[in-house]
Amino acid sequence: MSLGLAPPAPRRRPSLTPMIDVVFLLLVFFMLAARMGAEVSLPVAGGAGGTGEWSGPPRLVDIRPEALALNGVETPLDGLANALSSLVEAPTDPVVLRPRDGADLQRVIQVIETLSAAGYTQPILVE
């Protein structure tokens, strides 16, 4: 009894072209998604291991999502440097920054950059 099966078809080698296309697409994606700019460093001292001596009145800036408070008094961001000028002896005096009520990192960086532009060189970030 003969079943009469057809001879098996010759095996085809898989094409590598689709895989190469995917690899190149991933390569282009990661190249475009990578940060190509210069890194920005912010001069921030840690709250626990400060080495400088504290002198003068307190300088505590509470950073909230919509407002800033310097020593409990609400202060606008553009007036923060002027409000701090009467509390510091020199721009190298530490200023304590404390994020509150879910303030995001971008808001904290915005405050640090504003203080740096005004000449304050020692912000201290605490929890």
Automatic annotation (TrEMBL):
Main location: membrane
A Pfam family per the record: ExbD
UniProt entry keywords in alphabetical sequence: Cell membrane, Membrane, Protein transport, Transmembrane, Transmembrane helix, Transport
Keyword hit for Transmembrane helix: yes
Membrane topology: Single-pass membrane protein; Single-pass type II membrane protein
Coiled-coil features, chain-numbered ranges: none
Domain of life: Bacteria
This protein's record includes keyword Protein transport: yes
Location(s) in or outside the cell: Cell membrane
Signal peptide: none
Family: Belongs to the ExbD/TolR family.
Protein name: Indolepyruvate ferredoxin oxidoreductase
Organism of provenance: Rhodovulum viride
The organism's taxonomic lineage, starting at the top: Bacteria, Pseudomonadati, Pseudomonadota, Alphaproteobacteria, Rhodobacterales
